[in-house]
Amino acid sequence: MRGAVSGDRLRVYVTGYRVMAYITGVLIIVICFVGLPLQFAAGNGWIDKWLGTVHGYLYIVYVIVAYLLGSKLRLRPMQMIPLLLAGIVPVMTFIVERWMMRKHIEPALAANAASADQQPATR
Amino acid sequence: MSHVPMRRSTLGGRDTLNSMETPGSEPSAQVVPDTPEPVTPGPDTPESDASRVVSGPVWRFLIEPRWLGWHLFVILAFWGMLWLGDWQFRRAMAGNGLSWAYTFEWPLFAGFGVVFWARTIRDEFRLRRGVDMATGQIGVVAESGPVLPDGIGTRPIERPADDADDAELASYNAYLAKLNAEVKGHNKWRR
How much is the pTM? Predict the structure, then answer.
């Protein structure tokens, strides 16, 4: 049944999200703070072009993973949109990831653990 | 790490408390349930509160102003992303080889947007139908927990029966339960 997420499955979603958040976060930082200066100062657009493409495709994965986690956590659209857009704003993935951990993920994991302790038969 | 300011900010950002303190700002969040609902509007409750008493057919929420706004946003975002894809396609045809990647990505994102929108509406239907059905069998729903947001450790046991119709108190109790869950979670997570 949807909604009753088991703790283990939630953990899988959380791990997937965090991994993708770090990958896309690092990539976008490299693109913006290394690639763009290189392109405009040295005329070398190699990093931008290829890492940009790689980031583009990894961002697709990020969006999917983040959406899955967000829907499990029942985020509202106003919370979901910044979560999904974080992957294309430099440094934002790290901020949003911390916010997600603190405000949504840890409480959800704790609630799952609590309800698992309380009613082991239903889970 | 100091936890106290963090929680303060959590409280400050709560939609339910805010809308209770300033009635009239958020027309949809104020209706107090006349049945003792196990589902308490909390910080993680989806867009429309599950505790709302809806009159008329379930689909009527789709034409509420807030939802109409979202529909408009989805339509604009959809066309915007298709337009960007078309722009990248023109760039690719003009010789920019790397634009081919984005040519396919933008329509994909446009599709994502529509899928997310459809899923949100589907979940909203399920939520509202579940609440409607739950008026007869609140206990069952509360125990199996399909309606409860994952972030809230609300348990009917913790709430005395005479307080059950006090939405503000219930909301505050849910907040306390969440804090409690957060404390437990910190220990668990950082172990």
Answer: 0.58
Q: B153 vs A67: CB contact, 8 Å cut-off?
A: no
B22 compared with A105, residue with greater pLDDT: A105
Q: Do A2 and B43 touch (CB under 8 A)?
A: no
**CA dihedral in degrees (A75, A20, B185, A104; nearest 10)?**
-10
Domain ranges of chain A: 7-114
B107 touches chain A (CB under 8 A): no
Write down the pLDDT at residue B40. 44
Mean pLDDT of chain B: 67
Q: Assign B151 a pLDDT band (cuts: 50, 70, 90).
A: low
